[in-house]
Design goal:
Strand order of the largest sheet: 4-3-2-1-13-14
Bound molecules: zinc ion
Strand content: 15-25%
Number of helices: 15
Helix content: 25-40%
CATH superfamily of the largest domain: Metallo-dependent phosphatases
Distance between the termini: 70 Å
Oligomer: single chain
């Protein structure tokens, strides 16, 4: 019997060993991209849902004499902790704890640009930021320009009532974002939302900055138009105050221009605004603006990437109902405690996507900073496309991805930080004259183009106005009508991501045993 058992055990071990060999025939063979993606998707399916029991019980009889507005803007997918970002676990805990102090009097708002900007957020098109915002119980979010980066439908699906593709528990606002085809606002969005706090009715009107279409790839925004802000939201506020008995109005804008804020300060009577929440400019700024009827309207903008939380407190005089406010921003920082459940969730996401983002593609041969990287990136684009010259916008190479210390193992994740946008490569044939037109703008070029006053050389040879040149760029720049790219001939666009060009350029250096020095 004992012998039989031993034979059985031996057979079992052999089966196990053979099993291992068949599932991993060659452990040294690098996985294909498709294999890595399949692995990441399988890992993500196994990540437990983020559920936090945050049940705020409003006491309906509680007399509300103040309202606290906590705000986040331009989060840009900063779920994980980095040198700059405090991470969603810290910010989440802060927001939950602060709301718990006065659940009846607190609301949490987002002023847009929440999803686009890091590998782990971009991978599922912001779904994990939505899950975090649900867990933390955001009350509303306004749509920012970067919400258009993947096509706005990718974000609007989070409010389509279909739970299978992810769903925001809070409204998406965009009072002045209209569809050119029918003049209606975007589907699944609302111009405003009303939140009841005790006996108080708080109206939140969401809008995007006037003219911000120019900060969106043309192909993604061509069907939409951003209407003038005061003429759009003024009548909405009037309706809220006059017909819906709203007591307090918060202007929630993916906007921070002084022009807009002054125009909001010009709204009076039934159209008056009580607080302004800003975004887009990544400023850490708390201030107030005096309205034309002499009220001090608090304004806040809370940096970017989860570095700050904005905080406005409005005090409501119980007799006169007069509202006075103060604003501030609170730095999150690495010393704040993390929320355990959120931390576990983010770590699970990092772990699940590690085969993709933690893949090392090279080593930093120097301390890498932004501006050399901009020129290097344009050179890499030129080389990849065999163009004569390449143009990119320096803003696409993100300053907050730097510095990268000498000796750092550079990963795909680093490249997502450097170039978070899914911009694609485009090439075109232009004349020397058209290239001169491009030089009037502040685009960055590949280093082989040298312009000193009217003297322009490409590879040391003077630019010939009548000659044609092959020119490479990225869709975000290429499709803007102010540049002459679209007037050229033989336009080629195969959908290749600019980020992938940069990844391949670093990998090529590594294969040649070189460190990456931009
Ligand atoms: Zn923005």
């Amino acid at each position: 019997m004992k012998k039989l058992f031993r034979i059985f055990l031996l057979l079992w071990i052999i089966t196990l060993t053979v099993g291992c060999v068949t599932t991993n025939p060659n452990p040294n063979k690098p996985k294909t991209e498709a294999e890595v993606l399949a692995e990441v998707n399988k890992n993500l399916e196994a990540v437990d849902e983020l559920t936090i029991d945050v049940s705020f019980v409003p006491e309906t009889d509680d007399p509300i004499d103040f309202l606290r507005i906590l705000t986040v803007n331009d989060f840009h997918g900063a779920l994980a902790e980095t040198d700059q970002a405090a991470g969603a676990a810290r910010m989440g805990k802060y927001l939950i704890d602060q709301r718990n102090l006065n659940p009846n009097e607190t609301i949490v708002l987002s002023a847009g640009d929440m999803f686009q900007g890091t590998g782990i957020s971009n991978y599922r098109r912001g779904l994990d930021v939505i899950k975090w915002m649900n867990a933390v119980k955001f009350d509303a979010m306004t749509i920012g320009n970067h919400e258009f980066d993947w096509g706005i439908s990718e974000i609007l699906k989070y409010r389509d009532g279909d739970l299978s593709n992810g769903e925001a528990d809070f409204p998406l606002l965009g009072a002045n974002i209209v569809q050119k085809a029918n003049g209606q606002i975007l589907p699944n969005t609302e111009p405003y939302t009303i939140i009841n706090k005790g006996h108080l009715k708080v109206g939140i009107v969401g809008y995007i900055g006037y003219g911000l279409e120019s900060d969106i790839a043309v192909g993604m925004v061509k069907d939409y138009k951003f209407e003038s802000i005061p003429t759009t939201i003024g009548p909405i506020i009037e309706d809220l105050r006059k017909n819906q008995q709203v007591d307090i109005i918060i202007a929630l804008g993916h906007d921070g221009s002084e022009t807009t804020n002054s125009m909001l300060a010009g709204l009076t009577g039934y159209q008056a605004v009580d607080a302004i929440v800003n975004g887009h400019y990544h400023l850490n700024n708390s201030d107030y603006i005096t309205s034309v009827d002499n009220r001090e309207i608090p304004i806040v903008q809370a940096g970017s990437s989860g570095e700050y939380v904005g905080d406005i407190t409005l005090n409501i005089n119980p007799i006169t109902k007069k509202i006075t406010g103060v604003s501030s921003t609170v730095k999150m920082g690495s010393s704040r405690p993390k929320h355990d459940s959120i931390d576990n969730y983010i770590n699970a996401l990092i772990h699940a996507t590690a085969p993709l983002f933690s893949r090392v593609i090279g080593v930093a041969g120097t301390t890498i900073t932004k501006y050399p990287t901009v020129t290097w990136a344009a050179d890499a684009l030129k080389a990849h496309t065999n163009a004569d010259v390449a143009f990119i916008n320096s803003g696409g190479i993100r300053g907050d991805a730097f510095p990268i210390a000498k000796g750092t193992e550079v990963t795909v994740g680093h490249l997502y930080k450097i170039m978070p946008f899914d911009n694609t490569v485009k090439t075109v044939t232009l004349t020397g004259t058209q290239i001169r037109v491009i030089l009037n703008f502040s685009l960055s070029s590949s280093s082989n183009l040298v312009a000193k006053g009217s003297s322009v050389t490409i590879d040391g040879v003077p630019l010939v106005d009548t000659r044609t040149y092959r020119v490479a760029s990225i869709d975000y720049v290429f499709d803007q009508k102010q540049y002459p790219f679209l007037d050229g001939t033989n336009i080629e666009a195969d959908g290749l991501l600019f980020r992938d060009v940069l990844i391949k350029a670093i990998e090529k250096m590594t294969q040649q045993n070189q460190e990456w020095i931009p």
